[in-house]
Design brief:
The chain is α/β, with parallel strands linked by helices and about 400 residues long. The protein contains 14 helices and 12 strands. Bound molecules: pyridoxal-5'-phosphate (PLP).
């Protein structure tokens, strides 16, 4: 029985075209882009082509794209550099449902004396622009709110956030790691000053990402060393990774709409089947403002971790709240912020569909989920009581 991969929010399989593009830079084309001879010039050229491709997808200048080792580094860079650039007191506004790359960075800065406001979200996982505006104070230097959430797939009102940030002359950073490549993002139209993305979330290689930094932002370097990335992020470029990311970015923006429609059709079909065929199941997050591949579902009277084990035996890869929090028994901070009681949050799994998945796989996955949920519930005294009408 073949595996069914439904954890595309954790990582995605490398596209064959991307691998093909990368291979020469792992073999003969090994030049250091800083060198002064032919193979270096070729490597440098490949890196700059990727920069141009990515800049075009965001509607910005190539000089505004900085390569990083991934989304986590880009988030750290954006937030820490604003804090370090400030000569006086610093206040940051973020949300309670950010990825840990943002949340833990903010918490670390709090220990250094930075003030941080963690905005609440509604039951769909959306922040309120009014609450955001109310949280602004004279010291506010940065608003960092994700474009779309990795656990429940909720898309934030980014344009409104950008407007508010502009009106108050505050930097706006967005973690777009889940969103980039799924819908068009124009940094200028949306009022975004900094944006993080990661190649392995859009069919590119792991260990490559980028941070968009608007031209006129005067921020200190993140990595000290050589002159790479205009002196702001030292270190020899990950040439194969950057080349692969450029190719993946270009492919993600080609036929984007058709691909997204196909993915969201699979998503809606899966959600409808699960909710229709399995009792005591609920969808978390928003129907309307939702990433195309995200299904986040809670099953009452089921332990999410146990369900994942059974699904794994069926060859199905799914996640608990988020890949970063598996292993810990704490319910997901995102579901908690959305007001889900712990007992229900514990029975939650995340299934994320990618463009490589098929309807046949979705059908097989739903059958397995139905079977596994029933099996776990048959061992649950609470569920048996409920069915016997004793409660
Ligand atoms: C995966 C992810 C990250 C981290 O990206 P890496 O490249 O794995 O470091 C950050 N933010 C969000 C929303 C993510 O989904």
């Amino acid at each position: 029985m073949s595996m069914i991969y439904l954890d595309n929010a954790a990582t995605t399989p490398l596209l064959p075209e991307v691998l093909k593009e990368m291979l020469p830079y792992l073999e003969g084309q090994y030049g250091n882009p800083s060198g002064l001879y032919q193979i270096s010039a070729e490597a440098k050229n490949a890196v700059e082509n990727a920069r141009k491709t990515i800049a075009d997808t965001l509607g910005c200048e190539p000089e505004e794209i900085y390569f990083t080792s991934g989304g986590t580094e880009a988030d750290n860079w954006a937030i820490k550099s604003v804090y370090r650039a400030g000569k006086k007191k610093c206040h940051i506004i973020t949300s309670q449902i950010e990825h840990h790359a943002v949340l833990h960075t903010c918490q670390a800065l709090e220990r250094e004396g930075c003030a941080v406001t963690y905005l609440k979200v509604d039951e769909m996982g959306r922040i309120s622009p009014e609450e955001l505006e109310k949280a602004i104070c004279p010291d506010t230097a940065l608003i960092t709110i994700m474009t779309a959430n990795n656990e429940v797939g909720t898309i934030q009102p980014v344009r409104k956030i950008g407007e508010i940030a502009r009106r108050h002359n505050i930097f706006f950073h967005t973690d777009a790691v889940q969103a980039y490549g799924h819908f068009p993002i124009s940094v200028n139209k949306l009022g975004i000053d900094m944006l993080s993305a990661s190649a392995h979330k859009f069919r590119g290689p792991k260990g490559a990402g980028f941070l968009y930094i608007k031209k006129d932002l005067d921020l200190p370097p993140f990595m000290h060393g050589g002159a790479q990335e205009r002196g702001r992020r030292a270190g020899t470029e990950n040439v194969p990774g950057i080349v692969g990311m450029g190719r993946a970015a270009s492919l993600a923006h080609r036929e984007m709409e058709e691909r997204e429609q196909k993915t969201s059709a699979m998503r809606d079909y899966m959600i409808r089947r699960i909710l229709g065929e399995i009792p005591f199941a609920r969808l978390n997050g928003s129907w309307k403002n939702r990433l195309s591949g995200n299904c986040n579902i809670s099953f009452q009277f089921v332990e999410g971790a146990a369900l994942l084990v059974l699904l794994d035996e069926e060859g199905i890869c799914a996640a608990a709240g988020s890949a970063c929090s598996t292993g810990s028994r704490e319910p997901s901070h995102v579901l908690k912020a959305m007001g889900l009681p712990d007992s229900i949050a514990h029975g939650t799994i995340r299934l994320t569909i990618g463009s490589q998945n098929t309807m046949e796989e979705i059908d097989r996955a739903v059958e397995s989920i139905r079977k596994c949920v029933a099996r776990l519930r048959s061992n649950s005294p609470e569920f048996e009581d409920l069915m016997d009408g004793r409660k």
